[in-house]
Amino acid sequence: MTLEKAMEVALQVQGPLSCSRRGVFNEGNGLKIKPLLVGFFPLVRSGQLSTIKPLLAGVFPPVRSGQLSTIAMEVALQVQSPLSCSRKGVFNERNGLKIKPFLVWSLPPVRSGQLSSLNSWRKEFRSSGVSFRITAAADFSKRRQRKMSNARPRGSSPKGSTPKAPVGSSTQKRDLENNGEKEGSITPKSSERTEDNKQTLEIQVDEDEEQAIKHSEEKKVDEEKILEEVSLMSKMVAAAKSNQVVENGSISRVGKDTTLPEDRNAVEGSQNDGLENDGIVKEKSISIDERKTEDDSLQIKLKLEMDEKLRKQEIDRLAEEKLRKQEIEILAEENFSKGNKFFVYPQMVKPDEDIEVFLNRSLSTLSDEPDILVMGAFNDWSWKSFTFRLSKTHLNGDWWSCQVHVPKEAYKMDFVFFNGQDVYDNNDTKDFYILVEGGMDAFAFYDFLLEEKHRELEKLAKEQAEKERLAEEQRRREAEKAASEADRAQARAEIEKRRGTLQELMKKAASSFNNVWHIEPREFKGEDLIKLYYNKSSGPLAHANDLWIHGGHNNWKDGLSIVERLVSSDRKDGDWWYANVVVPDRAFILDWVFADGPPQSATVYDNNHRQDFHASVPNGIPGELYWVEEEHQIYRKLQEERRLREEAIRAKAEKTTRIKAETKERTLKRFLLSQKHIVYTEPLDVEAGSTVTVFYNPTNTILNGKPEVWFRGSFNCWTHRKGPLPPQKMLPANNGPHVKVTVKVPLDAYMMDFVFSEKEDGGIFDNREGMDYHIPVSGGIAKEPPMHIVHISVEMAPIAKVGGLGDVVTSLSRAVQDLNHSVDIILPKYDCLKVKDLHYQRSYSWGGTEIKVWFGKVEGLSVYFLEPQNGMFWAGCIYGCKNDGERFGFFCHAALEFLQQSGFHPEVNHHAQLSKPAFAAGWATVYDNDIIHCHDWSSAPVAWLFKDHYMHYGLSKSRVVFTIHNLEFGANFIGKAMAYSDKATTVSPTYSREISGNPLVASHLHKFHGILNGIDPDIWDPYNDTYIPVPYTSDNVIEGKRAAKDALQQRLGLKRADLPLVVLLGSAPDPRIQNDFVNLANHLHSSHHDRARLCLTYDEPLSHLIYAGADFILVPSIFEPCGLTQLTAMRYGSIAVVRKTGGLFDTVFDVDHDKERAKAQGLEPNGFNFDGADPAGVDYALNRAISAWYDGRDWFNSLCKKVMEQDWSWNKPALDYLELYHSARK
């Protein structure tokens, strides 16, 4: 009887296997068996089964004697742990291993007399020396052991395996044999011996191992993936099979409770049971499951297809490798023949790929070096640096190579070769480079860096905010600790003072006094009711009709705590009166006075000659606990007072900051809309990285009537890295005459710049009279580099102020500095200056005299004071000397010499921030002077002295801006400065038009601009003004102004009544006019002593009180270049009444006549104005103003609120000046 058995074991082994003495695989370390093992069994007759049972135990199911020829057992076990063989030949589970190959053992027919041959074969096969190709899976150690099925009943199939339906049919058997013949495998015959089986095994395994060695790591990965798929399919088939149990010729489905054994001992015990019943086999009948056969066939087909796929992949890989090798050899020969010392493969370098860099050492400066390394980076050395060691290649010649990964952001690879120390081959100092194709270009990479930088800045901003929060929290805790200690110390001091005072009082206190007062009973304590008697006839209350006691205790500690009315007593020894008084708890001393009435009504007192009356409480001597409690009570009170005070200060500071921010935001919006009739954007606030639409109305410009309008723009004051944008033809918009264009704003933009032209190639331009159009961009990565502005002036508020010039220099400088630019001021050191913390720096010589340089901070600004030792500024005044022209001319020349000698020039440290005096680190400190700003006739010589003597000697990159504050003084100097300056301004647009016809100005209108002055909102701030009684904002303007008006009337001796208060502020430069004012003052004081006052002196506190308390400020100037009076008045909610001239016309819009003019400026009407310089004009405006006060008080109050909310600070003028500075530097 023939036994033919094909046993296939699909074991995914995660550990190495070896064959034990029992012929079973044991575990090693994380390997996989790859070959196909095929063995052959000799013929066995039906009566010889007991002889081979030990070999088959645990593998084959029990069979009946007549059925061995039809048994084909297939075991597909997904083993999740290593396998070993027990004595009974069963696979045991260990640590998560998987056997990959299929193990197929075929048993040929065995006759009854051939069991000894089988035993011999078994011994030979066990020592046949089969070699295995074994690899490890990365996750074998992490996999959990798989549970086996429960123990079977005695006599059933061995644990750990399930009977399978036989493959059985002759057709299938022939197919398997034919497949084996096609692939060159040996088909076993019945006459073949065990030695043949051994030889077949060795040949098959050796061939597989040799083929596996040729595979690369990439091949292994692919193969493992495919085998995992096979394993998955095998699991599915095995799962389907395991659900069937064949017994007694029938098939039953195993339920969910049927599992494999979990215990190795249970498996061995089951096998021992089989051994004890040697020779007894329980016969079972097995039917063929067609679906199982189909699944087996599908599994075999999948394996064959996958094997074929692997084979083709390997062939393709080898072909590609061979082609690559050939191409590299050709490139090496070509480059060597041309004398090229390096090349790369592949020749077209693409991003996010690996390349190989080759260097011919013999052609390099490194020809004698044993070590070759490459050092480089990408994108002009700006991205991802690297260093790799090169290895000697197989190529003919001295070629060395290494692999480099090209990142996806690369557009260029830069590198040099070196020996790892100090010998380099850098391509004759030009470095080596390779262009990367198909990826980013330089601009795209820069945008990528900007985005990375933006994210980094956001992260840093969050981290910085958190650091600042923690630091502020730490400062707060330290401040609270210091404050608490101070409060405790103050409480202790207060207690010591009270203790001493109380002790002194207790010494003087008594229970009665000289027939004036006494207490009954004499012994009492706290909370007792006593009678306090007073002899009315003993003091100043002898004639009073009513008597009251006003009392307290413990030296009036809690103030007035006893108030009682006295009644007459029936005593006959005097005019005695008494009151029933409850002694306060914890009272040691009673304190009181007598009066003729209750508190708030009494007029006559008996206070013991201002010593008050005191009586000791006999049983109330204070103990130490009392003083401890008192000290703690005082400490709590101080703490609460401090908390309330700090909360008020903090709330006020926060409100001030909020008001300033809101005002600045409104002003910026007004600035952006100030030219809406010509140009504006949507959205109005331009954000970096966004797309913006620019609208332009050519009908209001020089391009009116042109058939086309072209947009020409750039960013960052025309300095953006990408240069000017290509000209774009503007398209008609939907809002009338406007045309529009869309512009993408880069992430590194902080300013948008543009002009308009009639043609693509130019023609007529609208460039805003040389200023260009500029719109600030917010949210960008790049910030505007700070300019350095130096003001050379003879005035500066508040230390050297005569007129508005000093205010402008200080306030403009502060406003520009707040916009993150660097500002310095150079000023003469007058001997009348009062400046704290002046520091002497050093001296320099010019004009035959020594000039000392002093440095100090004034209003947060860096100021350099020049003190010539020739005494020119030791005159005790600013103006008024006969040689003012000579004095200020010398100062201008000395200031420019200071700039040159001190190194204030742009050649070295461009856009440096001044964080310390120029001389702090010596004369070597170098700064920029982007702008030198000089003012009026007194510093006008700076313009021509700079151009004639300093422009070509160290200050060549500076530009001069000159401002006319008043053309009435020093006209010749002003005219010359206009000619030499790069840009010129005056203090209001209207005044610029008024003087544009002057010959000194007319020829320079192309560079002449009117920029309105502003006021300093920190100096003139009614909410934080210490000179007025009630701080106020627009929310409580009526309350604040009422209190200030009352204080002003009291201060000036005016009648305190609800009447309109009109103030005239001004100055008289002509002495004759000044005398007229003196005479007027005398007349007013004599005829209207309580209705009018004329103050002919400057008083800083009084000026603040006037601005706050006045209803109207009258400024009837004949001419006024700008005027700060009306601006300050509106800041305090006072209504300006002005003449239409200069800056007065630019800032005051009549409530009756200027609504459209105000609207064009983004404002609402805010005052009253008039034209004529005569009494009729003044009367016309004042009558309307006073009538509005009387007839519509609510309307007038709303007007006060409205003018307070208008921004007349330097917020907008500072932006205008920055545009002028940029234009001067362009």
Overview of this structure, please?
This protein is α+β, with helices and mostly antiparallel strands and 1226 residues long. Among the domains are: 323-440, Immunoglobulins (Immunoglobulin-like, Sandwich); 509-621, Macroglobulin (MG2) domain (Immunoglobulin-like); 676-776, Sandwich (Immunoglobulin-like); 788-902 and 928-1010, Rossmann fold (3-Layer(aba) Sandwich), CATH 3.40.50.2000; 1036-1208, Rossmann fold, CATH 3.40.50. It is 35% helix and 20% strand. The protein has 25 helices and 49 strands. It has a 9-stranded mixed beta sheet with strand order 39-40-41-38-37-42-43-44-45, sandwiched between helices. Strands 28, 30, 31, 34, 35 and 36 form a 6-stranded mixed beta sheet that branches. Strands 10, 11, 14, 15 and 16 form a 5-stranded antiparallel beta sheet that branches. Helix 11 crosses helix 13 (941-950), helix 13 packs across helix 14 and helix 17 packs across helix 19. It is extended, with a radius of gyration of 53 Å. The model is unreliable at 1-219, 237-285 and 905-927 (pLDDT under 50). It comes from Salix dunnii. InterPro entries: CBM25, Ig-like_fold, Starch_synth_cat_dom. Pfam families: CBM53 (PF16760), Glyco_transf_5 (PF08323). Keywords: Glycosyltransferase, Starch biosynthesis, Transferase. Pathway: Glycan biosynthesis; starch biosynthesis.
